[in-house]
Amino acid sequence: MSAPLSREIAREAWRNLLTDTSHAGVWVLIVTTVLSLLGWADTFQVASLVNQSTAYIVGGGATWILQAPGQIDGASCDGLQMASGVHGAGALRDTQSSLTAVALPGAPLPMYEVTTGFPQVLGVSANDGILVPDHVATRLSASPDTQLVTNSGMVKVGAVYNYPDDGRRSVFAYAALALVPASGIFDECWITVWPTSQTTISLLYIALSSQSGQYQASPQLSQLNPTYSDQMDAAALYQSRFTRFAGWACLLFGLVIGFASLLGRRLELASSIHLGVPRGALCCQMLFEASFWISIAMLISSSLIIWQAISAANDKWPVALLGLRCVVSGGVGCLIGNLVSCVTVRERRLFSLFKSR
Question: What is the pTM of this model?
Answer without folding.
Answer: 0.76
